[in-house]
Hints:
Blueprint: E1 4-10, H1 17-24, E2 29-34, E3 48-50, H2 60-75, E4 80-85, E5 88-90, H3 93-102, E6 107-116, E7 118-122, E8 129-137, E9 141-143, E10 153-154, E11 157-167, H4 173-189, H5 195-206, H6 222-227, H7 232-236, H8 245-258, E12 262-266, H9 272-279, E13 283-288, H10 291-295, E14 302-304, E15 318-322, H11 330-340, E16 346-350, H12 357-361, H13 371-379, E17 384-386, E18 398-402
Parallel strand pairs: 1-2, 1-4, 2-3, 6-11, 12-13, 12-15, 13-14, 15-16
Antiparallel strand pairs: 4-8, 5-11, 6-7, 6-8, 9-10, 16-18, 17-18
Amino acid sequence: xxxxxxxxxxxxxxxxxxxAYNSVKDADKVVYFTSDPRKRPMYLEGNTYFNExxxxxxxxxxxxxxxxxxxxxxxxxxxxxxxxxEDEVVExxxxxxxxxxxxxxxxxxxxxxxxxxxxxxxxxxTKEHFVPNRLFKISEAxxxxxxxxxxxxxxxxxxxxxxxxxxxxxxxxxxxHYIVKRGNEHLDNxxxxxxxxxxxxxxxHLFGTYPTRQFNITEIPKVILDNFKIDxxxxxxxxxxxxxxxxxxxxxDWKKFFKPxxxxxxxxxxxxxxxxxxxxxxxxxxxxxxxxxxxxxxSNWIVEGDxxxxxxxxxxxxxxxxxxxxxxxxxxxxxxxxxxxxTKKYILISVPFKGTSNCDADPTHIIKEDRDWWISxxxxxxxxxxxxxxxxxxxxxxxxxxxxxx
Length: 406
């Protein structure tokens, strides 16, 4: 009868190892390879092997897996092995033991499910997940490549649904343990809530059904983003990096109406309108404050810059500032308008006016004023307001001025 050896790999995470072991303890043997022998559980003390883990070594994952593979080849060459990480559990180890009795000697990828965020949500990036070559006849195994995410190499490879490995690594386990502990404490001691309410409260947290509301994630305080090493601009510009029909339509409308030879666009984001203008024969370039947007721009005609910083006179027939000015501090607006005045002919701006839904939709909007206020800021500086064509997109928040450098 073929024997099954289970290898558990991990750094010694106490939140997971008990679950992992309980799911495979009926195997013929369980061996634990850990980088922290101090955290090995008593029930595995005789079958625990220490492997030093150097985080600076990018090949350490592959090297460590070859350590346990060499152990298997030396001590169990005729047996089968199922390898799991300590943040994984096996749904039915006995079905694996049954499977290997008739399975062809090979390396088998095993069905896997990934919890995401809580126990009520699974990874849905593909219809069905398989984790490569986790179940194998030891004599068929060759080696692991020495890299950061190695896959076992060897003989014939196949797949199996004889069981499912459940991955818990994307769960906030410490938080979930806290919820269980807190819920149980309230069940024993609370005089405010009923037992049914408290059980529902605990389960709602664990399974992701607790009532929540969506919000604008750009409202998250900078100190929190910094702690998780999240660039604010990655959030702000998320999903805004695609060319859309509106970008081409604006380019066509501007070319026909303004007849510009050169266009300068402030706050151009990833440069979609810059690119669209150049595609239809209008020389255009963009100035964008966000380094992230410039680094990931779709147009080569973009530089990093600030509309509220003085710039040299240009040769642009049209200067555009779409969804830019409302982000400025009030004291910076005057210099920004001076820069816009450096056009030879026209200024086109888009701002959300006070009282409209767009004005309050973005928490980064600072200047919130009505249409007449915005018009006066430009006309007071000698610029002439002209009528926005009815066919222009988003015309309800567009203003066009003529006058140039005065």
